[in-house]
Amino acid sequence: MINPKKNRVDHRQIGQELDLFSFHEETPGAVFWHPKGWLIYRILVDFIREKTAKEDYQEISTPVMVKSKLFKKSGHFEHFGENIFNFEVDDEEYSLKPMNCPESTIVYASKTRSYNDLPIKYSDFGILHRRELSGVLGGLLRIRQFTIDDAHLFVRSDQILVEIRKLLNLAIDVYDYLDFKPKFYLATKPDKALGDEKNWKEAEKSLEEALKEAKVNYGLKPKEGAFYGPKIDIHIKDSQDRDWQLATIQLDFQIPDKMDLNYINKNGKKERPVMIHRGIFGSLERFIGILLEHFGGELPFWLSPTQIVVIPISNKYNSYAQGVVKQLKTGGLRMHFDSREETMQAKIRDAQLQKIPFMLILGEREVSNNSLSVRKRDGSEMKDLSRKEFLKIIGERGRQKT
């Protein structure tokens, strides 16, 4: 159980103490990932990749620097222009992409699509840039360069409800791993929006039906939809009772029209696809910042950059310790063998400060019994475990909540 009083530490302090990342004046609003922090980042990306692979997503990668006319065509320049970094190259205006969706439409439009091809689902972990004012920058929570666990689905109208329901289930499943209880909101047409009223009403109705079919309670966010379509926003509360909007599922009839996207229907006629935008974590940087503060740095076992540290009581037990490391590493566990010329107590203290979930303390007794003594980061202990018993404990944790 998470103790909220224990976790009131800024993620920037946690990042420094655990050597996860740093910020520097040379690039305000961008993060320098250190090895352990980058490992957390990659674990989250791989986690989403595994989930979406089961739903036939295809991963793409698109350029960071794009001619500004693309965002003018999609409507982003008109509605989002003040947040875009723009510059000139060879007397032509370019932008650093602030979102992936317009470029995903270029991939979609690169060949003729049939109604049998849909749904087409593209995921994209491209680097994005947004022109945030220096006064609002705040560690990982508000930055200028970031990555979203982004995806864009191109679907037929008759596929909307099925795909939205799948996305709701995906969000619920992912947050359950982290013991978050999601809250759902339907965000409707803003005052400044693309498209006609009929399409907006149809899109809002589709999202509302999907929420009702999923049997989740939801609130309304009047006029808080994206400029191109209504959306479902998913919020969580952290251990400090702060509300965060993370996942978003957006239904879009406008950009397919702006970008002249088509597929050939079963009657041989051209028809517009509908576009669904979705992110589960949102900005990965922001999500990691939220997780660090939520858990007070004590990340779940599956997310911890170092899961186990092996601590021999003295150097004469190094050979036994190395054998333990070799065997356990074959299971893909992230381990550290602490062979420093330090006391056992110093090594345990350092492991606790680094929030490592398990310490294996090995000495004469463990060598004689071919066993392990295990100390958890909360200070509790398990004595005389066989390696098989310990592996069973680790296996049961897997990608669980703690």
Summarize the structure in words:
The protein has helices spanning 11-17, 35-53, 68-74, 76-80, 101-108, 160-177, 197-213, 254-258, 284-294, 318-329, 344-353, 364-369, 387-397, and strands at 21-22, 32-33, 58-60, 65-67, 86-89, 92-96, 120-124, 127-129, 145-155, 183-187, 218-221, 231-237, 243-252, 263-264, 270-271, 274-283, 308-312, 335-337, 358-362, 372-376, 381-385. With 402 residues, the protein is an alpha+beta fold. It has 2 domains: 4-294, BirA Bifunctional Protein, domain 2 (2-Layer Sandwich); 301-397, Anticodon-binding domain (Rossmann fold, 3-Layer(aba) Sandwich), CATH 3.40.50. Strands 3, 7, 8, 9, 10, 11, 12, 13 and 16 form a 9-stranded mixed β-sheet that branches. Strands 18-17-19-20-21 form a 5-stranded mixed β-sheet, with helices on both faces. Helix 1 crosses helix 9 (284-294) and helix 6 crosses helix 7. The relative contact order is 0.12.
Keywords:
21 strands, alpha+beta, nine-stranded mixed sheet, 25% strand, BirA Bifunctional Protein, domain 2, 2 domains, five-stranded mixed sheet
